[in-house]
Amino acid sequence: MPTTRRHFLRLTGGIMAAGTIPIVTVRPLEATPAMLNTAIRDVVGEAQVHIGRVKLDIPPLVENGNTVPITVSVASPMTATDYVKSIHVFNEKNPQPNIGNFHLGPSSGRARVSTRIRLADTQKVVAIARLSDDTFWQVAADVVVTLAACTEEMN
User: Fold this and answer.
1) Element (DSSP H or E) covering residue 7
2) End-to-end CA distance of the chain, in Å?
3) If both were cysteines, with which of 47, 73, 92, 146 could 112 make a disulfide (CB 3.0 to 4.6 Å apart)?
4) pTM to 2 decimals?
5) What is the block-wise mean pLDDT of the chain (155 residues), using blocks of 10 residues?
């Protein structure tokens, strides 16, 4: 079928009209404390989680949630018989509650990890360490975020 001028104008008019339709932006779902507990149970299973031995260095108040510095350290000699197997970091309100998993061994030297994370809102951050004797230790900190990350609208 040959393209006529009328057919061409109808086609381009339809494309231009489609370009004026507002774009709907969807915010990511916010996690819940129940999702945080489920994520922690996925890592520790039914094992008991003890308080202590883990230190979480994170600012209690951050202006911008896009880049929050965090350091997790564990009191461990890091010998062949007593060392940290892994460190797991969780949050309460980001779309995905498991921020990171870090696997260590006796040759790591120190049981310490540092990184930067994004926080969607004011929330609790939890760090859990798994030791070589398969015990789990945790620490939690509340962080107030004045400018949220992870929920920016796309234009």
Assistant:
1) helix 5-19
2) 39
3) 73
4) 0.76
5) 72 63 53 87 95 96 92 95 96 90 93 93 94 96 84 53
